[in-house]
Structure formats: C-alpha cells, structure tokens
Design brief:
alpha+beta; five-stranded mixed β-sheet; 4 helices; 23% strand
Length: 129
C-alpha cells in the first residue's frame, strides 16, 4: 500500500501548500479507488484526497455500507497526518463504525483507527430528524 500511495502522491495538485496527500479507498468487494488533494488560489474550492477517493467510489456506484477501509498518506517524512474534520464527517456518514482508516507518513510508518475512534461524536442523518 505504501508504494501505491507514494506513486499516487505525484498526481496531487498543490501549487500553494506543496503538501501532497494521497488516499486509497478499498471496498468490501476489494475494489480500490484513488484520490489526491487538489487546491487552488482560493484554497476553499479544492478538495482533500480522502474525499476525492470517496467521490470517485460513489461515482462508480459504490453505496454507503460498501466501504471497507481507507489509506491516507501525507507529504511529511516524519509526521503521520490525520484526515481533516470535513473528511471525517464524510467518513463517519459512509463507512461503518468498525471500518479502519490507516494513515501513513512517507517513511511508511502508520497509525490505524476505526471510524468510531476517529469520529467519536459524529453528526449524521439521525441528527437531522
């Protein structure tokens, strides 16, 4: 997985931050969907790698409950970055609570958390009723 994420890093579009992030989402049936972060001058119009991978999976017809795991690599050699809170919101809505999110640095070191651990107080559909 580390090699795939490192190769995918090259596709990030990060002219401002120079902070590439890559993500690979794996479904319960073994399909893989990749995503990278893309930014622009307004910074808010871009998207994170995690959501890019999720959007690609949804576009391909993957439904809520079919997601298995998510792998994310940040550009830092030493720091293992975690998904931002916008990404955590989407993860908490689409992934089962026992799905695993594994985050890596460029050395290949990793930390894994279940969705429940990463998003202990989710806001979801039940909150809108």
């Amino acid at each position: 997985m580390v090699e795939k994420l490192l190769e995918l890093h090259k596709n990030s579009y990060v002219p401002i931050s120079n902070y590439p992030v890559s993500a690979i989402l794996i479904t319960k049936d073994g399909r893989e969907f990749a995503g990278v972060n893309c930014e622009d001058a307004s910074t808010r119009a871009g998207t994170c790698a995690e959501r890019a991978a999720i959007f690609t999976a949804i576009t391909a017809g993957v439904k809520k409950g079919e997601f298995k795991e998510l792998h994310v690599m940040t550009s830092s050699t030493d720091t293992i970055g975690m998904p931002c809170f916008v990404c955590r919101q989407m993860i908490s809505e689409l992934f089962d609570k026992d799905c695993v999110v594994t985050c890596y640095n460029k050395k290949g070191e990793s930390v894994s958390h279940t969705v429940a651990e990463l998003c202990p107080y989710p806001f979801g559909e039940e909150d809108l009723k």
